[in-house]
Amino acid sequence: MVSEKMKPFMENNSAIRAMFEEGKRMAAVYGKENVYDFSLGNPNVPVPAVNEAIQAVLSEEDFNALHGYMSNAGFEDVRQTIADSLNKRFGTAFSQKNVLMTVGAASGLNVILKSILNPGDEVIVFAPYFVEYNGYVRNYDGRVVVVSPDTETFMPKLAEFEEKLSPRTKAVIINNPNNPTGVVYSEDTIRALAGVMEKKQKEYGTTIALISDEPYRELAYGGISVPFVTKYYANSVVCYSYSKSLSVPGERIGYLVIPDEMEESERLLTAAVIANRVLGCVNAPSLIQKVIKYCIEHEVSVDLAAYEKNRNLLYSALMEYGFSCAKPDGAFYMFVKSPVEDEKEFCETAKKHHVLFVPGSSFACPGYVRIAYCVSYEQIERSLSAFREIAREYGLTK
Ligand code: PLP
Question: What does pTM read for this prediction?
Answer without folding.
Answer: 0.97
